Amino acid sequence: MHSEQSQNWAAILKALAHPTRLLIAAELLQGTRCVTDMEDILPVSQANISQHLAVLRHAGLVDFAQDGALRCYYLSRPQLVAGFFDLLAQERSPIHKTKEQIQREKELSAEVKE
After folding, report:
1. What per-residue string of b and e applies to 45-66 under the rule 16 or more CB within 10 Å gives b?
2. What's the fold here for domain 3-113?
3. pLDDT at 3
4. Are 61 and 16 in contact (CB under 8 A)?
5. What residue segments make up the domains of the chain, in order of their start?
6. Neighbours of 104 (CB within 10 A)
7. Among 71, 56, 64, residue whose Cα is nearest residue 12
8. How far, in Å, CA of 94 to CA of 99, rounded?
9. Residue limits of the HTH arsR-type domain (predicted)?
10. Over the stretch 3-55, which tens digit does the pLDDT of each residue have?
11. Separation between Cα atoms, residue 109 and residue 81, nearest integer Å
């Protein structure tokens, strides 16, 4: 892995590392949304949504189209975001795992290292 690649990946992960930005990304997976539409759906102000969209845009995850006075956003890398959510859906919190599941994962990890 090259330094530039690791920096790009870190920027993407950092952009998604906020609950509101995850909600925005999940909403945009459903299709293009204007900021006013997201304001009706998300529990934050329009200004806050715009700030989070700017972070996602800077990371190259979203872009927008101007529709008169409205800015309507869409995912510029929908496969990446969908894959990220698919990966997260597979993760289970260690609190919800049984002792047997944890032990089995440790055994599998040890087998891979050998």
Report:
1. eeeebeebbebbeebebbebee
2. Arc Repressor Mutant, subunit A (1.10.10)
3. 87
4. yes
5. 3-113
6. 12
7. 56
8. 10
9. 1-95
10. 888 999 999 999 999 999 999 999 999 999 999 999 999 999 999 999 999 99
11. 27
DSSP count for the chain of H helices, then E strands: 6, 3
- pLDDT at 93 exceeding the cut of 70: no
48 phi, psi to nearest 5 deg: -65, -40
The residue whose two tokens read 């290292």 is 113
Sheet holding 70-75, edge to edge: 33-34, 70-75, 62-67
Query: Can you give the C-alpha Rg of the chain in angstroms?
Result: 18
Tokens 């949504």, residue?
Answer: 49
pLDDT band at 107 (very low <50, low <70, confident <90, very high): confident
